[in-house]
């Protein structure tokens, strides 16, 4: 198993929030975790549900989630290789948080102005 990206997650009060956000930081990690809550998926299945993400970015985000112990990557010895991703027990423990983020978004972002991306 790879070493976690974060050397230490123990710090001052309020830091547990920072530590949690550090594990799911990035534009795509929360979305990946949300899709994997439905069950095991292959790379292309995830990519089809996230057409805005590049293949490289998705690969990097999946690697980081795996390194942090939030997802499990299984490679099957087939030709061509089949790779499946699923939530680990640690990743599954984030389900209430991801669901709460979804509920908050549904309740608060319906009439929010769209933010234009900087060019």
Structural class: alpha+beta
Portion of residues in beta strands equals 5-15%
Strand order of the largest sheet: 1-3-2
User: Which spans of ≥5 residues are poorly predicted at pLDDT below 50?
Assistant: none
Question: What is the N-to-C succession of helices and strands?
Answer: HHEHHEEHH
Total count of helical runs of at least 4 residues: 6
Mind summarizing the main beta sheet? 3 strands, antiparallel
Shape: globular
The total of beta strands comes to: 3
Care to describe what's here?
This protein is an alpha+beta fold and 119 residues long. It contains six helices and three strands, in the order ααβααββαα. A three-stranded antiparallel sheet has the order 1-3-2. Strand 2 (71-76) and strand 3 (82-87) form a beta hairpin.
Task: Write a concise synopsis of the structure shown.
Helices cover 46% and strands 12% of the residues. The protein is of the alpha+beta class. It has a 3-stranded antiparallel β-sheet.
Which secondary structure elements does this structure contain, and how are they paired or packed?
Elements lengths: L14 H9 L5 H8 L4 E2 H7 L5 H13 L3 E6 L5 E6 L1 H4 L2 H14 L11
Antiparallel strand pairs: 1-3, 2-3
Q: What are the main properties of this structure?
A:
119 residues; alpha+beta; 12% strand; single chain; globular
